[in-house]
What we know:
single chain, alpha/beta, four-stranded parallel sheet
Amino acid sequence: xxxxxxxxxxxxxxxxxxxxxxxxxxRHKADITLLNPTDYFLYLPLLPQVAAGxxxxxxxxxxxxxxxxxxxxxxxxxxxxxxxxxxxxHYTDPEGDKGTLTYDRLVLAVGSVNKLLPVPGIAxxxxxxxxxxxxxxxxxxxxxxxxxAAASDDPKSSAARCTFVVVGAGYTGTEVAAQGQLFxxxxxxxxxxxxxxxxxxxxxxxxxxxxxxxxxxxSRTADRVLRQxxxxxxxxxxxxxxxxxxxxxxxxxxxxxxxxxxxVGVRPDPLVKGxxxxxEQGRLLVDPYLQVPGQPEVFACGDAAAVPDxxxxxxxxPMTAQHAWRQGxxxxxxxxxxxxxxxxxxxxxxxxxxxxxxxxxxxxANPLGIPLSGPIAGxxxxxxxxxxxxxxxxxxxxxxxxxxxxxxxxxxxxxxxSWSVPLETSSPELARVGGAPEKSAGGHASARSAGSAxxxxxxxxxxxxxxxxxxxxAKPGGGPDESVEPHREPDGNRPEGTS
Length: 499
C-alpha cells in the first residue's frame, strides 16, 4: 500500500510551521512535498531592517532544505491552479517548466499580497513592502535619492528627493517610517545636503491613530517616538492621486516626492479565488479544524484562510504572523490526525502581546499585556525576534552588534530594478525577470502590465512569456540613474533586447 501524499502550498509562517509539525508527527508514514517559489522562509517582521541597512538580506531568510527534516521534499515553483476533483496542484518552476503534484491531503498556506485601492496613479507610482525584492529595491532607492539630492544644485529637486511618503500606519508602515528616518539621517551625516534641506518622512493613514489594530498604549508610544524623531505623522489623511512628481493628499497639500511606499495592508493570495469555494472577504472559509467545508482532504491556514475566532464568536482571526505560525502547528496536527496519527483539535488562541521595532534602541511592546517602551521594550522586541526565528539567530545578533558600533554601508547594489517589483503582483516574494513592462500610451512603463505576466484567471504564479522589455520606469525615482535622465535606465543596465 502506497504512503499518503501530502502537499503544502506556501512556506510562509503557516506553511513552514505545518511542514515542520507534520514531518515530526508522520515521520516516514507519508510523503510530504512543500511547494514554494523560493528555497527560503522569509522572516517578514525584520524586513524593515533590511530596507534600512541594519540587516543583510540573507539574515532574514531561513533555508528550507537546511532547516526542515529530510522527509520534507521541496518543490520549487509557483502554484498556477488547483484541481480539487483530480486532487492535483499545477505549478510552474523557476525556469518556466510546468509540473503537477497529486495529493491525498492538501494544505493551502499561500499567504497574502499587497492590497490595492482605486487611487489614480498608485499602481504605476508606488511600491509595496511584502517581499525581499521590494526591501532591496527600497534600500537602493532611498540611498540613491539622498546621493542625488546631495549632488543637486536645485533646492526644490533636492528637497523632493529627500521626501519619503509611507502610506499605511499599521505594523509594517510604522516600522518602515521609523527605520527609514534613522537610515536617511545616517546617510546625510556622510553626505551633507544643501542648507535648509533635510530628510523628511511622512506617515499617512485614514485611521485616527497609528497602529490602529493594536493596543492604544502601543499606538501612543509609537506616535511619540515617530514625532520626536521628526516623522510627519498625519492621521485621517489619504492619498488622492499619485504622479511622477509627487502625491496629492486629501488635506489639500501636494507633496513633491520621488518615493511612495504602499503599506496599506494585505489581501489574500488570489489563488484561493479559483477554488470556487466559499470566501470571507477574499479568504478561504474553513472550519475551526482548518478544513475546507465539503473538502475534508483540504486544509487552509494563514492569511489566505478565514479561521473562526473561537474566543470571539462570529469573528475571524486577523491576518497576523502570530496567528499564521500557530495555525500552521494546528494544521500539521489535524492533517496527521486525518491519517490516523493523533487527535485533531480546534484552533484556539490567546494573545501573547505585540512588539513594534522603532529602530535604534526604541520599541513599543506589551508582552503578556505588560506595556513597555524605550530601551527595555527594544531589548524585549529583539529577544522575541531571536526566539521566534527558526534559524540565523547568531547572524542576526551579530549584525545588530555591528550596527551598534559601525556606520551603515551606504551603497547601491543595483540588483533590483523599479520595473521588477510592481505593486500589482501576485508574487511579491519574486522579482520580475526577463523583461521590463511595456510602455503605456503616455510613454511610461506600466506596473499593471508588469504584474500581469501571470494570467489573473490562473491564480498565483501562472507565468507566461514576459512582455517585451522597455527602458522606462514609471515609479517615482524608478531608475538607478536618474541623474542621466529621469525614470530611464542607461543602455548598459537594461535587459537585452531593450530598445
